[in-house]
Design goal:
two-stranded antiparallel sheet, 6 helices, 6 strands, Ribosomal Protein L13p, Chain: A, about 160 residues
Length: about 160
Amino acid sequence: MTAIARARTANPTYSPKVGEIERRWYVVDAEGATLGRLATRVARILTGKDKTTYARHIDVGDFVVIVNAEKAVLTGGKDDKKIYYRHSGQPGKLKSETAGRLRGRRPTRLVELAVRGMLPKNRLGRRQLRKLKVYAGADHPHTAQQPEPIAIERSPS
């Protein structure tokens, strides 16, 4: 048997179909969790890298609900040092804001930006980001989906 014939009889690589994807819901309590560690764990779940059916060209990830986002911890004085930029597209309209001020103004945005930075920078990443739900307080409207809790390492205080 030649190498070509042997290659044709081998099992093909599995690629999940859209109808076969099983989505689950998870809830993460961000209180006392380090922002970067929280974001990496959530990004892995959103992309589906923790599943055996992972395919990098298809969205196989799960939904994640983050509660208590305002209580996530930034280490090393990043509340004052880390700067977030945004631009309106018009000349001279570049705005900058420290992480501490952003947390005071929009506490959920800090977590959203951290997770967004760890997802692919394309259509697939934008679709995965839609499955992230972030809330500043402990209440969320997704109890009907019965999300499973996930434990995240807490920052040593």
